[in-house]
Each structure stands twice: as C-alpha cells, then as structure tokens.
Amino acid sequence: MKLRELTDGVIAVAKEAGEFIRSQQQVVKSDDIEKKGEHDFVTYVDKNAEKMIVDGLSLLIPEAGFIAEEGTSDKRGEVYNWIVDPLDGTTNFINGISPFAVSIALQRSGKTILGVVYEISLDECFYAWEDGGAFMNGKTISTSLRDTFSRSLIATGFPYYDYSRTRDFLSTLEYFMRETSGVRRLGSAATDLVYVAAGRFDAFFEYSLKPWDVAAGAFIVEQAGGIVTDFRGEENYINGKEIIASNRPLFNVVFEVVKSRLA
Ligand code: IPD
Ligand code: CA
Ligand code: CA
C-alpha cells in the first residue's frame, strides 16, 4: 500500500477513536479515574480508545507490532511498529478542558515514516508521510518563518515526575518568559508539536516525555520544515525523553537556551 493511502486509513482510525473519546466527555465520572502513578491518570476512555486503534491499525498492516501507552498489545513487529497514544492530554480531558488528541506514528525498521495527530476538541487532524509534506484537514502546513526571538511564542510542558531538574527547568522558563513574547503550556505534547508544525508556536521543548507523546508530532514538524533534536542537538528525541522542536530561523537560539541550562 502507498504511504499516502495508508495515511488515509490511519486518519480514519484516529478519527473513529476521537469520536468515541468526544462522546464520553460528558459521561466519564470521577469514579472512572484510576491512578497509574503519582500524577498520572487513566480512565476506561483511554483504554477503550487504544483497543479501537490497535484493532483498526491491525487491519491496515497485519504483521506490524505496537508500542502503545496503555499496553493493549505487546506484539513487536520485525519491520513495522505503531507508536500509539490513544489520548494525549488525559488530565485536560478529565477536567473538561482542551486540547486532547489521538497520536499515531508508524516506524519502519526504527525510522518514522508516517504520523497522525487528531486534536479532538477542535476537530483538527494533522498528518504527514515520508517525503509527502505535512497537512491539517487537507491543507498544507509549514513551520513559521519568524526569525525575531523577542516576538516568538514558545510552548513547553511541566514534568509531573522527575523533579531533579526543576531548578534548571525554571531557569530556562524564566529566560523564555523574559526574552520572548510568551510561553504556553497546553497539556498535550502531541498538540504542542503539531502547533509548531502549523506555525502557531515557533518552538517547543519538554523533558520526561515518552515515545507515544512525541513520535507522530515530531515527524509532522520535520515534514513541515522544522528541526527536531534532543537537548544535545542529536536525534535521540523519541526514546531519550528530551525534545526541542523549532522552526528553522530560531532553532539555534532556542537550542542554546535549552542546552546551556538543561543538557
Ligand atoms: C501527557 C501530555 C502532557 C505532558 C505529559 C504527558 P498523557 O500525556 O502530553 O502535555 O506534559 O508529560 O504525559 O499522559 O495525557 O497521555
Ligand atoms: Ca501522552
Ligand atoms: Ca495518553
């Protein structure tokens, strides 16, 4: 199957799960909230959405394996593996705020070749496939052209575990607060990344993220013309738990700010 057509299939799977998640917004109750870790929550909505996604993707590539947040499948594929976050932004979802998204990436021999992030509350589907460009709801998207750091808008996330780096993180945050036009924390890393891809944010950085938070969004940023690295400027940003995603003109300055304090 061609990647373009496969992407259409993945979009359909992501939207079906998104519809289900949306339908549960007024239904989910506080009794449904389970704790996975100290500040890490999950509900039947995340789990059922993941089952729907794993079933749907299994029809697209029967031999592919999964790296999926809620552990629906531990099958590993020799060549193809899907990286799935069924609901990125669970804390937003259970508190009735936006954004929250489905995130699906496909890797071939460890290299990402397709990404879909469906932001449910605004019905915005961001997607890209290898060498195919990047899109949102059928329109081409690209990273911003902004080259003035003082005008830039930066996104980040606040880690909810591993507080050993909090001081350095706060010093990084303070620098961005003083020197840019603003800092945002949306609560969905997949959405932060596709907003960089669409030129809404100029850059994003965060640490302690998991592969399913970033794999699809980072790929979409690259296909939209942006630069993605870890805090050392290297490529280990899917498994390495550190990520910087930026437009091209501002990458060097954003990278230096983050590297000098957090690398
Ligand atoms: C979380 C979101 C959030 C980020 C957290 C993630 P989840 O994902 O992406 O923005 O700051 O680190 O865990 O738990 O809602 O899937
Ligand atoms: Ca997530
Ligand atoms: Ca999740």
Radius of gyration: 17 Å
CATH topology of the largest domain: Fructose-1,6-Bisphosphatase, Chain A, domain 1
> How many E-type strands?
14
Give the distinct bound molecules.
D-MYO-inositol-1-phosphate, calcium ion
Q: In whole angstroms, how far apart are the ends?
A: 41 Å
Within the largest sheet, what's the order of strands?
A: 3-4-5-6-7-8-9
Describe this structure in words.
- It is a single chain.
- With 263 residues, this protein is of the alpha+beta class.
- It folds into two domains: 138 residues, 2-Layer Sandwich (Fructose-1,6-Bisphosphatase, Chain A, domain 1); 114 residues, D-Maltodextrin-Binding Protein, domain 2 (3-Layer(aba) Sandwich), CATH 3.40.190.
- Helices cover 35% and strands 26% of the residues.
- The strands form three sheets. A seven-stranded mixed beta sheet has the order 3-4-5-6-7-8-9, sandwiched between helices. Strands 11-10-12-14-13 form a five-stranded mixed beta sheet, sandwiched between helices. Strands 1-2 form a two-stranded antiparallel ribbon.
- The protein is globular.
- The structure holds D-MYO-inositol-1-phosphate and calcium ion (CA) (2 copies).
- The site of one calcium ion has 4 residues, from strand 4 and helix 6.
